[in-house]
Design goal:
Strand content: 15-25%
CATH superfamily of the largest domain: Periplasmic binding protein-like II
Oligomer: single chain
CATH class of the largest domain: Alpha Beta
CATH architecture of the largest domain: 3-Layer(aba) Sandwich
Structural class: alpha/beta
Radius of gyration: 18 Å
CATH topology of the largest domain: D-Maltodextrin-Binding Protein, domain 2
Number of domains: 2
Keywords: Signal
Number of strands: 10
Distance between the termini: 21 Å
Pfam family, one: NMT1_2
GO cellular component, one term: periplasmic space
Largest sheet: 5 strands, mixed
Strand order of the largest sheet: 2-1-3-10-4
Subcellular location: Periplasm
Protein name: Nitrate ABC transporter substrate-binding protein
Helix content: 25-40%
Number of helices: 12
Shape: globular
């Protein structure tokens, strides 16, 4: 089974990454390999086209390749809440939670990830064009094997951008180097209240695989749940995974980041989560109309 992530050197999809590297999928009877396919719309398209079996990515991004939730299902939450952070240059002296500090700045954000920031700004009453907010991809971040967050931190250090919207690995890198400050962490209460519910990290598969191999789907769900529990019991397992896959600097940080993320490691996907995410998807034009929970989530796996 091929499992893909849109970012590899990251905390965002770590339960899926760890489930492969720690052999948990294998324990559940699945031979799984990990692939890095960036950006997330392309990851979802590859699964739609039969090149991948599962994607660990932003739940809302499924709609890029499966319009109106036709052909794919969310299986399990890797973590709760929108998991990207806004990091701005430390020399700006921005106070945490001050959304309006973004005005007039150049912000790096990955395709498919940027939609969360764009909608957040609208909710905060900020017009990107009027207020001079430039949101664009980070140069060099689309190379194979590259971590978007870490690359964004380097671009911030080099003065190519004034801030970035990315995962906690990128944020931690920037903060530890003294080059960036966390301006917004929405799932911890910063920014517009609705933003926390725009999306969440999820394991996704196709209706095709559910129909033809429900046993594999059930095994994948068990593997993620088991891995979440294992990381809660021993966060240092993250270092073991990081040492295999990450550069040394990022491997040394991952356990600390995962330890902070543990409160969000709940696998359930509630009806409220889906309803709020779908409202976000409608607001940004990814979803044409409301759809029932059962069309979005694989309920047989609950």
């Amino acid at each position: 089974m091929k499992i893909a992530v849109p970012d590899l050197v990251t905390n965002s999809y770590f339960p899926a990454i760890a489930a492969v590297e720690l052999g948990v999928f294998e324990q559940e009877g699945l031979e799984a390999t990990l692939e890095h396919v960036f950006p997330v719309p392309q990851t979802m398209a590859a699964m739609r086209d039969g090149q991948l079996d599962f994607v660990a990515g932003g739940a809302h991004a499924t709609l890029n390749a499966f319009p109106d939730w036709n052909g794919a299902k969310l299986l399990v939450a890797l973590s709760q809440g929108m998991y990207w952070l806004l990091v701005l240059r430390s020399d700006l002296g921005v106070e945490r939670g001050n959304v309006h500090a973004i005005k007039g700045l150049r912000i790096g954000a990955a395709p498919g990830v940027d939609v969360g920031l764009r909608r957040l700004l609208i909710e905060a009453g900020i017009d990107a064009e009027r207020d001079g907010v430039q949101i664009a991809p980070v140069p060099g971040a689309n190379q194979p094997g590259v971590s978007f967050g870490v690359t964004a931190a380097k671009a911030l250090e080099d003065g190519q951008i004034d801030g970035f919207w990315a995962n906690a690995m990128g944020a931690e890198t920037a903060v530890r180097r003294g080059i960036g400050t966390i301006a917004l962490d929405v799932r911890r209460g910063d920014g517009p209240a609705a933003a926390k519910f725009y999306t969440f990290a999820a394991l996704v598969t196709t209706d095709r695989l559910i129909e033809h191999n429900p046993e594999a789907v059930a095994a994948a769900i068990r593997a993620i749940r088991k891995t979440q529990q294992a990381l809660k019991a021993d966060p240092e397992l993250a270092t073991e995974v990081g040492n295999r896959l990450f550069p040394q600097a990022e491997a040394s940080m991952i356990a600390d980041i995962i330890r902070r993320d543990l409160p969000f490691y709940e696998p359930a996907i509630s009806e409220e989560m889906v309803s709020r995410m779908n409202q976000f998807a409608q607001d940004i034009g990814l979803l044409s109309a409301p759809v029932p929970y059962e069309q979005v989530v694989y309920t047989s796996g609950l």
